[in-house]
Amino acid sequence: MTEAAAGTARRTPGTPCWVSLMAHGLGTTEEFYADLFGWEYVPGPEELGPYVRALLDGREVAGVGQLPPDRSLPVAWTTYLATDDADATAEAVRSCGGTVAVGPLQAADAGRMAICSDPIGAVFGIWQAAAHVGTRLSGVPGTPVWNELVTQDSGVAKFYQTVFGCETQTDPASALDRVTLHVAGRPVASVHGVGRDLPHDRGAHWMTYFQVADADLAAARVVELGGRVLREPYEGTRGREATVTDPEGAVFTVVDTRGV
d(Cα 183, Cα 27) in Å, to the nearest integer? Predict the structure, then answer.
């Protein structure tokens, strides 16, 4: 999505529709992203435990929740892919070699969800929208602008093609092992094979890209707020970008797409 307002319509199945972070310290995490992106917060569904929805201009852009104190799970951003039937999609995930770790379960009147992983182990969510369709604002600083699966090789794109009906496209002129996923003829996400450069401490993972006005300034601000810069700002495929972490170690990318 590149339009300023993402609207209230359900996303076509296979389209990234939401990103959510589960952290150990909900309050301090809220403060970090509020300072970095200007987010405000409202409570989310009680069924998800301590959980808030982040707002920009009064519209939902992301979710932040708190991990149970007795769970030592990794802190990471999760990309949710839209579906019209969470239960059927969960079965498709299993039949294609993936895993369903949580759900499907009902999140009050917001929708139905599940947390899954693909055959390589990359975690993602599926979301069957009801009252909550997902991100309602895009194309402005502080909003998700892209989602990319970072994995050993792009062959796992076939899994998403089969489960969600995505079309795949490669750029024959590029030396990179990258496949773009298309839904209804529109690019919605990518799968980037990095081979031995895959981080051993994270394995295959979905990366969330957040739009910023200036990637260099955003990276510097991340450090001031207690986060880290994993890759200094550079000219990437989607604009000037930097890979960073929040204070708890959740990895994400900030990108300024003005020059693209």
Answer: 36
For residue 6, pLDDT over 80 is answered with no
Let me know whether 158 and 115 are in one domain: no
C-alpha–C-alpha distance, residues 151 and 119, integer Å: 11
The lowest-confidence range among 41-45, 133-137, 241-245 is 41-45
Q: Give residue 50's identity as a one-letter amino acid code.
A: P
Domain count across the chain: 2
Same domain, 54 and 24: yes
**pTM value?**
0.93
List the strands of the sheet with 99-107, edge to edge. 40-43, 51-56, 59-66, 16-23, 76-82, 123-129, 111-117, 99-107
Inform me whether the pLDDT recorded for 80 exceeds 60: yes
Spatial distance between the Cα atoms of 152 and 195, rounded to a whole number of angstroms: 4
- Among residues 115, 122, 119, which one has the least CA distance to residue 97? 119
CA dist., res. 42 & res. 33, Å (int): 14
- Full domain range(s) for residue 248: 144-256
124 lies in the same domain as 22: yes
Q: Which of 129, 158, 193 is the last residue of a domain?
A: 129
Paired strand residues for 114: 126
For residues 57 and 83, state if they share a domain.
yes
DSSP, res 137: B
6 is a domain residue: no
- CA 168 from centroid of its chain's CA atoms: 19
Count other C-beta atoms under 10 Å from residue 85's C-beta. Answer: 14
CATH of the domain at 164: 3.10.180.10
Q: Tell me the sheet residues that pair with 125.
A: 80, 115
- For 167, the token pair is 């079309």
